[in-house]
Design goal:
Oligomer: single chain
Structural class: alpha/beta
Number of domains: 1
CATH architecture: 3-Layer(aba) Sandwich
CATH superfamily: Rhodanese-like domain
Number of helices: 5
Strand content: 5-15%
Number of strands: 7
Largest sheet: 5 strands, parallel
Helix content: 25-40%
Length: 186
């Protein structure tokens, strides 16, 4: 056995093992509320699950609205007042609407309204519009947000489970993102 063959065999074994591990994750009945960066199910009842190639085709054909739900890192509470805080940059799929923090298992009322308003903007108020919801690979945030979109009555929800990781693995373009503004607190 050549070294090249051994390496290819090992890579194939890792891919098969990884795929089997994902297949083994059962789809829960409710939202995931902890350990968000963990293997995800291969399905989401009521939604279409797409590969990177399928998501790319939707994006290139401009057939759907892409919604990124990756959380925004919070500013540490214990920073001294004179410390300059810079948000960690987020790069997402060009044309996406970034609705940070909307994929948690439990949402505050204001965050849920922010998600509902964002989905309404992304879909132009059309509950049958194609919505592609994503964050990163092995991230429950997009699974939760896609499940929520279904619960709001959206009937054409696509869950892109590989998210920006899968997009980057295929050398597809990513752009610097800014979150959608939140309405002022009342």
């Amino acid at each position: 056995m050549t070294l090249r063959y051994a390496i290819l065999l090992a890579m194939a074994l890792v891919m098969v093992t990884s795929a089997r591990a994902q297949d083994a994750v059962p789809e829960p009945n409710d939202y995931r509320t902890d350990n968000y960066r963990a293997p995800v199910p291969a399905t989401l009842k009521g939604a279409q699950v797409v590969t990177t190639k399928e998501a790319e085709a939707i994006w290139r054909d401009k057939r759907g609205a892409f919604v990124d739900v990756m959380p925004r890192p919070p500013k540490p509470a214990n920073l001294p007042p004179e410390t300059v805080w810079r948000d960690k940059p987020r790069r997402n799929i060009p044309g996406s609407l970034w609705l940070p923090d909307t994929g948690y298992g439990r949402l505050a009322a204001a965050t849920e309204t922010y998600l509902q308003d964002g989905l309404a903007r992304a879909s132009a108020g059309n509950p049958t519009a194609l919505l592609v919801i994503y964050c990163q690979a092995n991230c429950w945030m997009s699974w939760n947000a896609a499940k929520r979109a279904l619960s709001y009555g959206y009937s054409n929800v696509v869950w892109y489970s590989e998210g920006t990781d899968g997009w980057e693995w295929e050398d597809l373009p990513l752009v610097d993102a800014e979150p959608e503004p939140r309405p002022p607190a009342k």
